Amino acid sequence: MMKAGVLTDASERRTRWLGGLAVFMMVMTSLLGYLAPKQFAALLSLVGLLAAPGLLRSRPPLLPMFALALMAVWALFSLSWTPALPDPAKLKKFGAVENFTAIKLFLQLGLYGSAVAMLGQMSVRSARLAARVMLVSAGLLALITCLDGLLGAPIYQAIRKASGDPLTPDLAMVKVSMGTYPLVLLLWPCARVLGASTVKGRNVLVAILFGLILLAAHITGADAPVAALVLGGWSGWGCASSASRSRGP
């Protein structure tokens, strides 16, 4: 019988492919987070597409998917009165279709939903491996983003120059700052994984990761990640305090 989240009795042979996809996604997250953050949508779509055949052999969670489908339908319906409705005659080119938010929402619903539904069926062993790779990837991304930000983005400039597309230092700093956005999203899963582990100094590791992301965001001028870290930390502390009080002494 399936349980919510990771399956404890799943066959490792059956979930090996899903584990490989999860590891691939975590590895590419660190690379794309630094070099091409805007390609995260394409990465998750690819993972969802590769995981989709498994939906035929499983029972995905339909209720959350139904709720998301209703939101996508409402977004499509709301286009009937928006002045930003694209001209259907101009949807022949891929770039024009990509700018059609309603189409993108339904594609994301199917592909992202496929990725989430199938990766949630990994075996415990595969999930632990993917979690370790996520921790290493997030740590490397935070380290390189913080270091490059402190130095004035020379690493990113060198990479762009080698690719034949050089950037000025100010634009390079903007590009480096974009790596802090996925780091903010990765921080809390990493904190959850470390908190559930038996690693010594796990709280120190979470604090170091938090500090690196905060410092990198501040140096590169990324205000939104700083706000997200502060509000997220405040909310998490509030929830933990409420849970502690509810349990009593």
Q: What are the secondary-structure elements, in order, as H or E?
A: HHHHHHHHHHH
Number of helices: 11
- Tell me how many strands there are: 0
**Radius of gyration from the alpha-carbon trace, in angstroms:** 21 Å
**pLDDT < 50 runs, ≥5 residues:** 1-5
Apparent shape: globular
> How much of the polypeptide forms β-strand, as a percent range?
under 5%
**Main pleated-sheet profile:** none
Helix percentage range = over 70%
**Chain-averaged pLDDT:** 80
The structure class reads: mainly alpha
Termini separation (Å)?
A: 37 Å
List its salient traits.
249 residues, mainly alpha, globular, disordered N terminus
Model description:
The protein is mostly helical and about 250 residues long. It contains eleven helices and no strands. It has helices spanning about 10-35, 40-50, 60-80, 95-100, 100-120, 125-150, 155-160, 170-175, 180-195, 200-220, 225-245. α8 packs antiparallel against α10. The longest helix has 28 residues, at about 125-150. It is globular, with a radius of gyration of 21 Å. The protein starts with 11 loop residues before the first helix and ends with a helix.
Topology:
Layout: H1 12-35, H2 40-51, H3 62-78, H4 94-98, H5 101-119, H6 124-151, H7 154-162, H8 169-177, H9 180-195, H10 202-220, H11 223-247
